[in-house]
Amino acid sequence: MGETNSVVVDHLVKRFGDLTAVDDVSFTVKSGEIFGFLGPNGSGKSTTIRILCGVIDPTDGNASVLGYNVRTQPEEVKRRIGYMSQRFSLYEDLTVDENLDFYAGVYEVPPERFAERRTYILEMAGLVGRENELAANLSVGWKQRLALGCSIVHEPKMVFLDEPTGGVDPVSRRQFWDLLYEMADSGVTLFVTTHYMDEAEHCHRLAFIYQGEIIALGSPAQIKADQMTSTVIEVDCDDCERALEAIGRLDDVQEAYLYGSMVHANVDDARKAKRTIKEAMGASGVGLREMRIVEPNLEDVFVSLMDKMERR
Questions:
Q1: Which helix (H) or strand (E) holds 233?
Q2: How far is CA 162 from CA 36, 85, 205, in A?
Q3: Which of 188, 186, 192 is nearest to 205 (CA)?
């Protein structure tokens, strides 16, 4: 049996007056995959999700979710999907149990089925024993898991997650992604937006959107191979801000940007660039500890793509 698609987007366009928020976008999302949707603020991510969730109509083009047309069957789409945002969509004056009960009512989950779903979600989210605790009193990580539980109480086969890990600590983020992997393994399709490039590495496939256009599409490995034709030099020094300023002025450097406590520089000729970077560090009075060539990651790709698009 061949692969099926949970989402099919065909030349989708959305205009708000003179602004084209989504510009002739096409892609598919395979059933059971984790699909990452990346882009800077204002790039069209949230608008695309709102169309796919049946909340707003496209101006042109078509899209289907789980086989239902978002333009002509939006209510069918809404009934069959789950949605979770960065704000978590919880009622903080309700308890854990009351939140689950409320969303079960919204999605018309039969009482006998809800009893089973409640048990599963409490165990999945690690909330057993916290059923009567107010959502307002939960830590951000616990709220995140409860919000995920509320979004899947009706057993949707497709879940949209819009910046679901914003403001969450690294340990909770890792635990959350473990839950997403379990869901994908069970056949649930996940459509995720994130600003964390390390999370994007965990997606099966990615789409980069910029000013309403898809500028890269494929697996993380494919995108890195296709988009990064330059070499990445990592600079370890005692003053990253001054180093970044000095390196960014060099003709041998395409882009330079902070990467944690390091500076990354994208270059064509690594041997020549290493020499000029070392000279620039000395002239700027910056202490150079180490300089090495590293494998590009998605953050390198993202910065490079943004630079290319802005120069275009």
A1: strand 231-237
A2: 10, 5, 16
A3: 192
Q: What's the pLDDT band for 2 if we cut at 50, 70, 90?
A: low
- Rounded Cα–Cα distance for residues 12 and 177 (Å): 29
How many other β-carbons are positioned within 10 Å of the β-carbon of residue 92? 12
* Closest residue by Cα to residue 161 from 119, 189, 126, 201: 189
Distance CA(106)–CA(84), nearest Å, equals 15
pLDDT digits (tens, 9 = 90+) for 100-146: 999 999 999 999 999 999 999 999 888 999 999 999 999 988 999 99
State the alpha helices, DSSP H only, in the chain.
45-52, 74-80, 96-106, 111-124, 140-151, 170-185, 197-200, 220-227, 240-248, 270-284, 298-311
For residue 130, the 8-state DSSP code is -
Band of residue 163 on the pLDDT scale cut at 50, 70, 90:
confident
Among residues 212, 199, 206, the alpha carbon closest in space to that of 225 is found at 206
At residue 93, what is the residue type?
D
